Inverse folding.
């Protein structure tokens, strides 16, 4: 994938994550303001946020991790469109978990991300009750 396509794909995932987290993907100023509230490093400008939203640049790894944490998405999905591979400690799974994981692996990255977002929303809603 070329650099411009990578940046565009990142931009689309960022906008999707912002929408899913009930934040506007259309305002670089609001993105910069909200991001800076969740980031301990040097603040980003609205200009930098606009470049992320327009697919002109991708944030540094440190900023990407902060974005992912703030928006409650996996950092590797936000950057690359893939979901994290399980850690060795997560490998002790029930037969149902193994079957579900096998089915998830059969999905393309886009559909896996949709399943992840659906599960995230279910967990978020169940915590509010």
């Amino acid at each position: 994938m070329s650099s411009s396509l990578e940046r565009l794909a990142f931009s689309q995932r960022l906008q999707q994550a912002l929408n899913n987290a009930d934040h506007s993907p259309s305002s670089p100023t609001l993105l910069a303001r909200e991001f800076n509230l969740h980031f301990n490093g040097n603040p980003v400008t609205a200009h930098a946020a606009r470049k992320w939203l327009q697919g002109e640049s991708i944030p540094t790894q440190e900023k990407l991790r902060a974005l992912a944490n703030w928006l409650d998405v996996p950092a590797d999905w936000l950057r690359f469109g893939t979901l994290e591979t399980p850690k060795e400690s997560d490998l002790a799974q029930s037969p149902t978990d193994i079957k579900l994981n096998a089915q998830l692996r059969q999905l393309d990255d886009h559909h896996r991300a949709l399943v992840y977002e659906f599960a995230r929303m279910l967990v978020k809603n169940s915590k509010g009750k």
The radius of gyration is 16 Å. The helical segments are 3-20, 28-37, 46-54, 61-71, 75-80, 95-105, 109-127.
